[in-house]
Design a protein that fits this description.
- Helix content is about 50%, strand content about 5%.
- It has about 450 residues and is an alpha/beta fold.
- The chain folds into 3 domains: about 5-125, Rossmann fold; about 130-160 and about 195-270, Serine Threonine Protein Phosphatase 5, Tetratricopeptide repeat, CATH 1.25.40; about 280-455, DNA Cyclobutane Dipyrimidine Photolyase, subunit A, domain 3, CATH 1.10.579.
- Bound molecules: flavin-adenine dinucleotide.
- The site of flavin-adenine dinucleotide has 27 residues, from helix 9, helix 11, helix 14 and helix 16.
Length: about 450
Amino acid sequence: MSAIFWFRRDLRLQDNEALTAAFESHPDGVAAVYMFNQPEYQVLEGIRQHSLTESIRSLSHDIDGQLNVLQVQSVSEFSQRLLKICKQTRIAKVYAMESFDPKGISEQTLLSKELGSAGIELHLVGSAYAVLPGKVSKPDGGNYRVYTPFYKAWMNLADVLPKVLPSKLNWLSIEETKDVPKPTKVSPIKVIAGEDFALRTFERFTDRALDHYDEMRNRADLSGTSHLSHALAHGEIHPRTLLATIGDSPAHEVFRKEIAWREFYADVLFHYPHTVDDYYEPRFKKLRYDTGAIADERFAAWCKGETGYPMVDAGMRQLLAEGWMHNRVRMIVASFLVKDLHIEWTKGAEHFEAHLSDFDPASNSHGWQWTAGCGTDASPYYRIFNPILQGLKFDPDGKYVRKYIPELRHLEGSAAHEPWDIFDGYSGGYPAQIVDHSEERNESLARLEELKSQNS
Ligand SMILES: Cc1cc2nc3c(=O)[nH]c(=O)nc-3n(C[C@H](O)[C@H](O)[C@H](O)COP(=O)(O)OP(=O)(O)OC[C@H]3O[C@@H](n4cnc5c(N)ncnc54)[C@H](O)[C@@H]3O)c2cc1C
């Protein structure tokens, strides 16, 4: 008996629990399909279109061109197409990785229902995580709302044994198009993606940076992080593969903790699915935010990287240029949008979603909410990043800022962070600050007090 394997955000062969299960139970043949949802694809910015098609193209290459790319207008159309294939090939079982975010859950629920009514089973196996979201629980059975105790419990459950595929894979050939659609928008960079590239990226990281990860990871000017977020978001590598390799040194431990942040946010989103685009701490909905023409202008300046704050602008320009931003800088730009420009985090999260090639619903929403102060955060105070001090600390020689902001390239060393202190600081045409950080900091704290008094 043959089966179908539906590739989702698990675009790889190695250490793919669901794929291993499909081949172990159906050595005669497995037909590979990918749901290419055209309406969802067409709204993606160029960089996301290119990074997705590159991942799919690479997977298709890895399975000898046997990936059937089903271009559809909806999940319902996808299930009708699957039903037709099942009927033609007498297949009664579809395997896939289980998804735990709201969109993935709604896809698999609909598919399971529609296939099920025709007697076809959708068999969901594994996840994109070392521990299934929803599995880590407190001794009283509840879920964790704070990261550190989650991490301790997660460590006891984390699955670090990579799943091995049978040595012979019999891909079933079916009469469907194998063509991967071409991007319809331009990307600012040529994207390299795929399982092989992900494994090489991890190898390069372990050789060059992992042993210093704890000291280097916050430096925006150094390549001290793994750059594996795209691969993890598309499932070109599984966290098990990473966890199986790393050791127990302090640097390795910090890296493991970052992997666990991704799992924590997936767990939080699973328990509170509305938080994908809504407040985790609902009282912050009532905080006074700015809207209207001035707020719109400021938002546009933030998106373009023209706020007059070098570290913020470098980050926002890196996002547009590369579809990626350093984690420390993501926090700085997010804090600036919410605490200095008083604009709701949801607008920033949408902009990130449009441009990040590593977009992940849980990490994005909760990364934003953590920084905005309305998410999961054990800290009792309201964190407001000083964008200038953060720049001086995490890009001490101004290299990162000069890389992305040509108007500041004539300034040496850390001077690039403070063009207002240099007599020709603005001669490259760099814009003036759109707001004053210390005034906006006070304003932000005043609005927080206002909110507290409403709630008391
Ligand atoms: C406002 C904001 C939005 C974010 N949006 C996303 C997003 O859409 N997609 C995404 O993958 N990450 C997101 N992050 C988390 C983090 O910035 C990126 O995962 C990280 O910068 C990716 O670079 P790296 O692979 O070199 O990370 P490394 O430092 O090498 O970390 C290894 C892996 O651990 C995970 N990780 C690391 N830090 C975090 C974190 N703070 N939260 C969750 N997972 C983490 C990632 O999967 C990452 O690839 C966001 C953070 C913030 C503050």
